[in-house]
What we know:
Residues 158-181 are annotated as: Disordered. The chain is an alpha+beta fold and 261 residues long. Helices cover 31% and strands 30% of the residues.
Amino acid sequence: MYIPSHLEVTDLDKQVSVIKQYPLGVLFNYNSAKTGLLDYFKSGKPPSGTDRVDSVMCATHVPFHYVEDPEGKTKGKLIAHLAGQNQHIAMLEENANCLVVFQSVDSYVSPEWYPLKKKTHKFVPTWDFACVHVYGRAKIIHDDEEWLLGMLNSITDQEEKKRPDTTTVSEKDEDHSGEKGEVPIHRWKVEEAEKRYLSQAMKNIVGLEIEIDHVQSKFKFHQDQPPVNVNGVLDGYAKELDPKKAQELEKFTRQQYPREL
């Protein structure tokens, strides 16, 4: 990934925070071709049978859970699951090297948000985002119900904790408890699923464990702009974006800006 030095983040804690907050990653890997691209051009004939030209790439969107190395000797692991019929499984078993891409909240940035634009007009649109690229080796886990159950618990608990503590129940949507108004939410647990149903569901998935080799990340939030322009962007977030999205972008921007705003 191309990363200008002022946008590069190497702190593992910051990288992991993006993974935890935005756990839906895109898993990539490829398998080498049986027929090279040069052979294809020389023969002038398309590949036949199981031959492949150059390589085959595959991408799968997967929610992940990050597992820290308790001894701190490695960068940790990513765990997840894939549908048993996913063709990506065979590719990962043939070539374990893979890449998982995570991305934060993002936004288009209009030059109109830069106050200095009115003086110089030397600005163009840009895009704000943070991305984390995780490289590692994948292991497919078959027929291990205990491992799968632990993984499902980890991912479910991770996301259930993000739900608000309370919700509003009106007379119209009164729940079975008869409560109305502001009530505590129930955080669902995997153990609540009917046992035979859960056991059958786990037979239709395989586990995925990625031993992390190295991580690259880019956090692009106007680190090279003067404070007046950055404050203009924060104002643009607040005025034109969804409030929750604006708050998340503002948090990233303030964390990454090298000076006080």
